[in-house]
Specification:
Pfam families: GerE (PF00196). This protein is mainly alpha-helical. It has one domain: Arc Repressor Mutant, subunit A, CATH 1.10.10.10. Helix content is 65%, strand content 0%. The protein contains five helices and no strands. Helix 2 crosses helix 4, helix 2 packs across helix 5 and helix 3 packs across helix 4. The longest helix is centred in the first third of the chain and has 16 residues. The two termini are 16 Å apart. 27% of the residues are buried.
């Protein structure tokens, strides 16, 4: 199993532990940039790598992460990625 698959598997496992709302949670609409950030993080990229890939500063990346966290009602970034995965917002 390569690193990216391992990271995705771990996110999925953690998602079920963190997310007590499950499928009953309403679908959350993330902006295209928020979705891109969540996707890059789900693939195992660091914040610096994701910012570089998106050609934005790490500060701007943090703004997108915080907006996504708020929309997903997540406790932290990992929780936000997990919720995005569970809700089918991130598709490999």
């Amino acid at each position: 199993m390569n690193r990216n698959h391992f990271v995705k598997h771990e996110f999925n496992e953690r998602a079920f532990e963190f997310d007590h709302q499950g499928d009953s949670a309403p679908t959350t609409m993330l902006s295209p940039r928020e979705l891109a950030v969540m996707t890059y993080l789900a693939k195992g990229m660091t914040r610096a790598q994701a910012a570089h890939e998106m050609d934005i500063s790490e500060h701007t990346l943090r703004v997108y992460i915080e907006a996504a966290r708020h929309k997903l009602d997540a406790l932290n970034t990992t929780h936000a990625v997990a919720r995005a995965l569970i809700r089918g917002l991130i598709i490999d």
